[in-house]
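FIELD: query
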Amino acid sequence: MELVVDRFLRFRAGATFDLATGVPVLVREAAIAEDAEQAAWATRMSALMSLRHPHLASVVDFGAVGPSRRFEAIALSGRERPWPRRDADAIAAIASVVDFLHARGLSAGRIGWARVVDGGGRPVLVPDAGCGAEMGHPGGAPVERERDALAELLAACARGARLAAERPDGGRIGAWGGFAL
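FIELD: result
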Protein backbone atom coordinates (compact mmCIF):
# COMPACT_ATOMS: atom_id res chain seq x y z
CA MET A 1 0.00 0.00 0.00
CA GLU A 2 1.00 3.55 -0.68
CA LEU A 3 -0.38 6.83 0.66
CA VAL A 4 -0.88 9.29 -2.19
CA VAL A 5 -1.19 13.03 -1.54
CA ASP A 6 -1.92 12.36 2.17
CA ARG A 7 -5.52 11.43 1.33
CA PHE A 8 -5.64 8.47 -1.03
CA LEU A 9 -4.59 4.88 -0.41
CA ARG A 10 -3.24 2.99 -3.44
CA PHE A 11 -3.00 -0.80 -3.26
CA ARG A 12 -0.49 -2.89 -5.20
CA ALA A 13 -3.27 -4.17 -7.46
CA GLY A 14 -3.78 -0.57 -8.61
CA ALA A 15 -7.03 0.26 -6.82
CA THR A 16 -6.99 3.66 -5.09
CA PHE A 17 -9.44 4.82 -2.43
CA ASP A 18 -10.23 8.19 -0.89
CA LEU A 19 -9.54 7.82 2.84
CA ALA A 20 -12.03 10.61 3.61
CA THR A 21 -14.99 8.90 1.92
CA GLY A 22 -13.95 5.32 1.11
CA VAL A 23 -14.85 5.95 -2.54
CA PRO A 24 -12.65 4.45 -5.28
CA VAL A 25 -10.78 7.19 -7.13
CA LEU A 26 -8.55 7.69 -10.11
CA VAL A 27 -5.56 9.82 -9.07
CA ARG A 28 -3.60 11.37 -11.92
CA GLU A 29 -0.33 13.15 -11.31
CA ALA A 30 1.63 15.38 -13.66
CA ALA A 31 4.39 17.96 -13.63
CA ILE A 32 3.31 21.50 -12.78
CA ALA A 33 3.01 23.47 -15.99
CA GLU A 34 3.97 27.03 -16.90
CA ASP A 35 1.99 29.74 -15.09
CA ALA A 36 -0.76 30.31 -17.70
CA GLU A 37 -1.30 26.60 -18.30
CA GLN A 38 -1.28 25.86 -14.58
CA ALA A 39 -3.86 28.61 -13.97
CA ALA A 40 -6.06 27.22 -16.78
CA TRP A 41 -5.79 23.72 -15.26
CA ALA A 42 -6.78 25.02 -11.80
CA THR A 43 -9.75 26.91 -13.29
CA ARG A 44 -10.84 23.78 -15.18
CA MET A 45 -10.50 21.55 -12.11
CA SER A 46 -12.41 24.05 -9.97
CA ALA A 47 -15.23 24.17 -12.52
CA LEU A 48 -15.39 20.36 -12.73
CA MET A 49 -15.30 20.02 -8.94
CA SER A 50 -18.45 22.15 -8.65
CA LEU A 51 -20.45 20.11 -11.19
CA ARG A 52 -22.66 17.09 -10.54
CA HIS A 53 -24.14 14.93 -13.29
CA PRO A 54 -25.08 11.24 -12.99
CA HIS A 55 -22.94 10.33 -16.02
CA LEU A 56 -19.89 12.52 -15.30
CA ALA A 57 -17.23 11.30 -12.86
CA SER A 58 -16.77 13.93 -10.14
CA VAL A 59 -13.50 15.64 -9.34
CA VAL A 60 -13.09 15.23 -5.57
CA ASP A 61 -9.79 17.03 -5.10
CA PHE A 62 -6.89 18.61 -6.96
CA GLY A 63 -3.79 20.61 -6.16
CA ALA A 64 -0.04 20.73 -5.89
CA VAL A 65 2.15 17.93 -4.63
CA GLY A 66 5.32 19.67 -3.56
CA PRO A 67 6.94 22.32 -5.72
CA SER A 68 6.94 20.46 -9.03
CA ARG A 69 3.94 18.10 -9.23
CA ARG A 70 0.16 18.40 -9.31
CA PHE A 71 -2.65 15.89 -8.91
CA GLU A 72 -6.32 15.46 -9.68
CA ALA A 73 -8.55 12.87 -8.04
CA ILE A 74 -11.71 11.69 -9.75
CA ALA A 75 -14.36 9.61 -7.98
CA LEU A 76 -15.33 6.32 -9.57
CA SER A 77 -18.38 4.40 -8.35
CA GLY A 78 -16.61 1.16 -9.12
CA ARG A 79 -13.07 0.28 -10.09
CA GLU A 80 -11.95 1.84 -13.34
CA ARG A 81 -13.58 -0.74 -15.62
CA PRO A 82 -14.63 0.11 -19.16
CA TRP A 83 -18.36 0.40 -19.73
CA PRO A 84 -19.28 -2.99 -21.25
CA ARG A 85 -22.11 -1.95 -23.58
CA ARG A 86 -21.52 0.22 -26.59
CA ASP A 87 -25.14 1.00 -27.41
CA ALA A 88 -27.53 3.89 -27.99
CA ASP A 89 -28.39 4.09 -24.28
CA ALA A 90 -24.73 4.63 -23.39
CA ILE A 91 -24.43 7.26 -26.13
CA ALA A 92 -27.54 9.02 -24.80
CA ALA A 93 -25.87 9.16 -21.39
CA ILE A 94 -22.65 10.56 -22.87
CA ALA A 95 -24.65 13.04 -24.96
CA SER A 96 -26.40 14.22 -21.78
CA VAL A 97 -23.00 14.99 -20.24
CA VAL A 98 -21.85 16.83 -23.35
CA ASP A 99 -25.10 18.82 -23.42
CA PHE A 100 -24.75 19.57 -19.69
CA LEU A 101 -21.19 20.86 -20.13
CA HIS A 102 -21.95 22.84 -23.30
CA ALA A 103 -24.90 24.54 -21.55
CA ARG A 104 -22.33 25.85 -19.06
CA GLY A 105 -19.91 26.98 -21.79
CA LEU A 106 -17.51 24.10 -21.08
CA SER A 107 -15.87 21.58 -23.37
CA ALA A 108 -16.44 17.85 -22.89
CA GLY A 109 -12.96 17.02 -24.22
CA ARG A 110 -12.23 14.11 -26.53
CA ILE A 111 -15.25 11.87 -26.84
CA GLY A 112 -14.60 8.14 -27.03
CA TRP A 113 -15.22 4.81 -25.36
CA ALA A 114 -11.82 4.88 -23.65
CA ARG A 115 -13.22 7.55 -21.30
CA VAL A 116 -16.47 5.73 -20.47
CA VAL A 117 -16.32 3.56 -17.35
CA ASP A 118 -18.77 1.50 -15.34
CA GLY A 119 -20.11 3.90 -12.74
CA GLY A 120 -21.92 1.33 -10.65
CA GLY A 121 -24.28 0.10 -13.35
CA ARG A 122 -24.36 3.24 -15.46
CA PRO A 123 -21.97 4.68 -18.04
CA VAL A 124 -19.82 7.49 -16.63
CA LEU A 125 -17.56 9.82 -18.61
CA VAL A 126 -14.18 10.39 -16.93
CA PRO A 127 -12.88 13.95 -17.44
CA ASP A 128 -9.80 14.25 -19.62
CA ALA A 129 -7.36 17.13 -20.17
CA GLY A 130 -9.88 19.04 -22.31
CA CYS A 131 -12.98 18.42 -20.21
CA GLY A 132 -14.15 21.50 -18.33
CA ALA A 133 -12.15 24.00 -20.39
CA GLU A 134 -14.11 27.05 -21.46
CA MET A 135 -15.35 26.78 -25.02
CA GLY A 136 -13.27 28.97 -27.32
CA HIS A 137 -10.27 29.07 -24.96
CA PRO A 138 -7.04 27.06 -25.26
CA GLY A 139 -7.80 23.45 -24.43
CA GLY A 140 -11.52 23.84 -25.17
CA ALA A 141 -12.60 21.70 -28.11
CA PRO A 142 -14.82 23.18 -30.80
CA VAL A 143 -18.46 22.23 -30.24
CA GLU A 144 -18.64 20.76 -33.75
CA ARG A 145 -15.81 18.32 -33.06
CA GLU A 146 -17.52 17.05 -29.91
CA ARG A 147 -20.84 16.71 -31.72
CA ASP A 148 -19.17 14.88 -34.60
CA ALA A 149 -17.55 12.49 -32.13
CA LEU A 150 -20.99 11.71 -30.65
CA ALA A 151 -22.37 11.10 -34.12
CA GLU A 152 -19.46 8.77 -34.81
CA LEU A 153 -20.19 6.87 -31.59
CA LEU A 154 -23.76 6.40 -32.72
CA ALA A 155 -22.70 5.30 -36.20
CA ALA A 156 -20.18 2.86 -34.70
CA CYS A 157 -22.94 1.35 -32.57
CA ALA A 158 -25.11 0.95 -35.65
CA ARG A 159 -22.22 -0.78 -37.41
CA GLY A 160 -21.35 -2.78 -34.30
CA ALA A 161 -17.83 -1.36 -34.50
CA ARG A 162 -15.52 0.51 -32.17
CA LEU A 163 -14.68 4.08 -32.99
CA ALA A 164 -11.82 6.46 -33.13
CA ALA A 165 -12.15 9.55 -30.96
CA GLU A 166 -12.55 11.76 -34.04
CA ARG A 167 -13.41 11.30 -37.68
CA PRO A 168 -10.17 11.83 -39.57
CA ASP A 169 -11.92 13.54 -42.48
CA GLY A 170 -13.80 15.96 -40.19
CA GLY A 171 -17.07 15.02 -41.91
CA ARG A 172 -20.46 15.32 -40.32
CA ILE A 173 -23.03 12.56 -40.14
CA GLY A 174 -26.62 12.13 -38.99
CA ALA A 175 -28.36 13.74 -36.06
CA TRP A 176 -28.55 12.77 -32.42
CA GLY A 177 -30.94 14.00 -29.76
CA GLY A 178 -30.80 17.73 -29.23
CA PHE A 179 -27.62 18.06 -31.25
CA ALA A 180 -27.65 19.50 -34.74
CA LEU A 181 -24.98 17.24 -36.15
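FIELD: remark
The chain has a mean pLDDT of 81.
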